[in-house]
Structure formats: structure tokens, C-alpha cells
Design brief:
This protein is mainly α. It has four helices and no strands. The protein is globular and about 25 Å long.
């Protein structure tokens, strides 16, 4: 797992998505303004994330990349270290 001081920085507080890097699981984990807030339990973000997961059948490309890397969905916290 990436150390806190090695995290990527995403523009506009995460609202500027890395469109050219759809396989970037770190965006979902540390940069996405919806997913990071939803995992903290903020009600509006949880509602938006649930709608997104239902409409996209599993999440955005970054959420799916996070699922592949960390083996947890975009709505779940990481409970184990990735290999």
C-alpha cells in the first residue's frame, strides 16, 4: 500500500479526474471526492456512490481498478494490505 506521504495529488481536490489514466486505482482510493467521502460515511456521498454503482454495474473505471488491485469494492475500506 502507498504511504501517506507518497500519495498522488489530483487537481481541484480530486474533481479533476485522470481521464487518460482509467486504470489508476489510487484515484479511487485517495483522490475521488465521492468515493473517499462515501467510505468515511458522509450521507450525500454514500447516496451518490450507491447510485453510481447501480447505474454502472460495479463502479467507474477507477473503482474497478481499485477492486482489481485491493480486492475490495469502491464502497468498502481496505482491511488488508495489498501484495
Amino acid at each position: 500500500m502507498t504511504r501517506k506521504d507518497e500519495r498522488k495529488v489530483y487537481g481541484w481536490g480530486g474533481w479533476k479526474m485522470p481521464i487518460l489514466h482509467l486504470n489508476d486505482p489510487e484515484y479511487c482510493e485517495y483522490g475521488c471526492p465521492v468515493c473517499t467521502r462515501a467510505r468515511k460515511g458522509i450521507p450525500w456521498a454514500v447516496a451518490v456512490q450507491k447510485a453510481e454503482l447501480a447505474l454502472t454495474l460495479g463502479g467507474c473505471p477507477w473503482g474497478r481498478a481499485r477492486r482489481r488491485k485491493y480486492e475490495v469494492g469502491p464502497d468498502q475500506p481496505i482491511t488488508k494490505l495489498a501484495h
